[in-house]
Amino acid sequence: MTPARPSPEATSPAKAPSAASPEATLRMVVRPGDALGLRLAGARVEEVAPGEEAARVRALLSDATVGVLAVETSVLAAVPEPMLRRAAERGLPVVLPFSLPRRLGEAAGGREYVAALIRRAIGYHVKLEERR
What is the pTM of this model? Predict the structure, then answer.
C-alpha cells in the first residue's frame, strides 16, 4: 500500500495574495452610521469620519489583501485625485464608487461606472438593467 501524499497546499509555503489570488477581499468604506446593513450582509466595512478619508483610503489601497475597494461617493469625493489616479494605474485594488439609497424606493447609483469598468475589462458594452 502506498502512503497518501500530502496536498500541494499543505507543503507549499504561505504567500501573500496576488492579483489572481482567491484570498483577495472586498472592503467597503462608508460614513459612520451607514455600515450596519453592509455588515449584516457579511461585508468588511470601514466607517470613516470627515477628515479621515485620505489616510484610511491610502491604508486600504496599500493593503495587499484588498482586491476590490468599494467606497461610498461622499467619502471618495474627499480623497485626493492623485491618490486615485495612482491606484487606477496599479490596477489593484479596483476602486468601485457606490452610493447608498437615502430614501425608501430610491435606487443606489453607480450603474454607469460599473458598466464602464466591465466595458474596459472585456472590450464590450454590457447594458445593466434594473430588476423590479
Answer: 0.65
